[in-house]
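Rotation project, supervised by the postdoc (A.L.). Task for the rotation student: set up a whole-complex structure prediction and record inputs and outputs verbatim in this book. Inputs entered:
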Amino acid sequence: MNGILPLRLEDVSFAAGGRTIIEPLNLTLEAGASTIVLGANGAGKSVLMRLMHGLVAPDTGRVLWSRPDVRRRQAMVFQRPVMLRRSALANVLYALEAARVPPQERGRRAREALAEVGLAHVAARPARVLSGGEQQRLALARAWALHPEVLFLDEPTANLDPGATREIEAVIKAFDVSGTKIVMSTHNLGQARRLGDEVIFLHQGRVVERAPVEVFFKQPASAEAAAFIKGELPWT
Amino acid sequence: MLDAVVSGLQLVATLDLRLWQVVGLSLAVSVSAVALASLVGLPLGAAIAVGRFPGRQGVIVLLNALMGLPPVVVGLVIYLLLSRAGPLGAFGLLFTPRAMVLAQTVLVLPIIAALARQAVEDAWREYEEQLRSLGVDGLRAALTLLWDIRFSLLTAVLAGLGRASAEVGAVMIVGGNIDGVTRVMTTTIALETSKGDLPLALGLGIVLIAIVLVVNAAAHGVKEAAQRRSG
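Outputs recorded:
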């Protein structure tokens, strides 16, 4: 399979407003294992995700995929989904059209995606009147329909209650099972354990630690990671 | 004064044919001008909102300034363009309703484009990452945003209609206020007032305000209903 992975970041750094947000870093993401990006607020998680997804350009260094024309082979789900003022189904169709999927395939793929996230029954409803959890599932359906090789998720459940969070996590699992590489930032350590294979821990714009999930939580190698785990645990 | 109001209302109530002809032409000219200006102005505003090009800030300032174009100046410029000796003189448009539509289109275009630019730019801030993630930018993004904020854009179009139906200077100059041909509500009001026929002037003033009110109420109703339905 000649996919777009691995993704390599070479000496990538990013600054905004005179403040360095990402220190020069080198990182390679392989296909397969689900990667969780952990770190405190302001550690640079969101910016790192956007650098990888190509929404912001690095100030130095390069973001390299193994193939060109990667835009249509990756998708991103944001903390707050932005839905167009049209039906749930039309939102998915719009994404397929933007990805230049042939018209005769769009309907089938959109309906499959809605069924996958459990929203088939609201296909005709205006997307903006759906609940927060439903809108986030619709965002996942929009990504699902695109059959991406890589799915970036930036704190996808930060605004949701536990019930909606469980539903989102089930869909993310399904992506993983179907072979999509998951790259997700989260605050929720329980979620990191449930969904992740490896952890990239960011602290003040630097990758302080990268380890398999179990190793990271049992024996964090850095003092910063140990403090973060200790500080966050009571709320997971 | 009160007498004038009463006879003005009587004129309206008796459906004076001459009066309704004037009202009809007014509406036809202003609605045509706003339709043309929207056709150009909404995409133009959206393109400026989404686009990144050198001199963009200057264009925005210019566009906002043009919202205050004096109607008589627009009328004068269109007059010069359309007059026999002017570059567009060969079309013979001067002193026709078409010339009036052209003048009002020029007058209203900056208002619609500038208000659309602001509305689309606000929406773009919210949608940009999502749309770019889906691989949508440029013209396609502009059109997507226009459609998505269609209810808010109604305000821009109504502002344009208000300006067009209220102005007198531009249509007076390029239309010539010819009875039965290019006479509209505002030019009639100006003429009748100077002639001293206050009842007719007032009657038309009342009709003008009533029309603007009805149009805005209808638009507001449509917008509210649509927004409730689609969030």
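Student's summary: The beta strands of chain A are 7-16, 19-29, 35-38, 60-64, 74-77, 150-154, 181-185, 198-203, 206-212.
Supervisor addendum: Residues 46 and 154 of chain A are 6 Å apart (CA to CA).
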